[in-house]
Design brief:
By secondary structure, the protein is α+β, with helices and mostly antiparallel strands. It contains 5 helices and 10 strands; from the N terminus they run αββββαβαβββααββ.
Length: about 210
């Protein structure tokens, strides 16, 4: 549990999305750093593959693979809500590594953020969902540590500006940029994951900044 690790002082930051903070206590703060657009991933021979853009309603009639509800993506939850109104067929993909997207391409349309690049062998086409919300990405940390961590947060926000027009803004790319900036300011970084959790995260070891 990353929140427990924050409270125990094992880590200073939890890289996550804003949906993780929706019901969080006032003891936690969230610094917005980037955003992730939502795309539909389809095989090259799919009926939608030649479309430059899609709307959520265009996915009606397809089996649509999404993040499990309430797990990590508020954008995915919103898409799910609209598809439910259309009585669309939906399925949950198994949270974990991004390669999961490729695994489901033969069984329908996968909705994922814009940083994932399927292996060439999968020949997936990425099509923006222009009416889907973006996910907000950033760092969660303890409010009691705000004064100590403020210089680090400010440094990150200056290097990773929150810009809705930025295209290279997926969860994977944002995480890589966060690591790079922390490396630049001589932080010790450890990447990790939470078994059986939809949330992709990395933790940052405590140190003298």
């Amino acid at each position: 549990d990353p929140i427990q690790l924050l409270r125990e002082g094992v880590i200073d930051f939890w890289s996550t999305s804003s949906v993780s903070m929706e019901n969080a206590s006032a003891t936690l703060k969230f610094a917005e750093l980037s955003q992730a657009r939502q795309l539909a991933f389809v095989p090259k021979d799919h009926r939608l593959a030649n479309r430059a853009t899609l709307k959520i309603a265009d996915l009606h009639g397809e089996t649509v693979w999404l993040w499990p509800r309430g797990s990590v993506s508020s954008a995915s939850d919103s898409i799910r809500n609209e598809l439910e109104q259309l009585s669309a067929d939906m399925a949950d993909f198994i949270p974990g590594v991004p390669a999961m997207v490729s695994a489901f391409l033969d069984e329908g349309v996968v909705v994922y953020d814009d940083g994932y690049l399927p292996p060439p062998a999968q020949a997936a086409v990425q099509i923006p969902l222009i009416d889907a919300d973006d996910d907000i990405l950033g760092l969660a940390y303890l409010a009691s540590q705000e004064a100590r961590l403020a210089p680090i947060v400010l440094n990150l926000q200056e290097h990773i500006p929150y810009d809705p027009s930025r295209k290279a803004s997926s969860s994977e790319l944002a995480a890589e940029r966060i690591v790079a900036v922390l490396d630049e300011i001589s932080s010790t970084v450890r990447r990790g994951g939470i078994p059986n959790s939809a949330s992709m995260w990395m933790d940052f070891m405590k140190g003298d900044f």
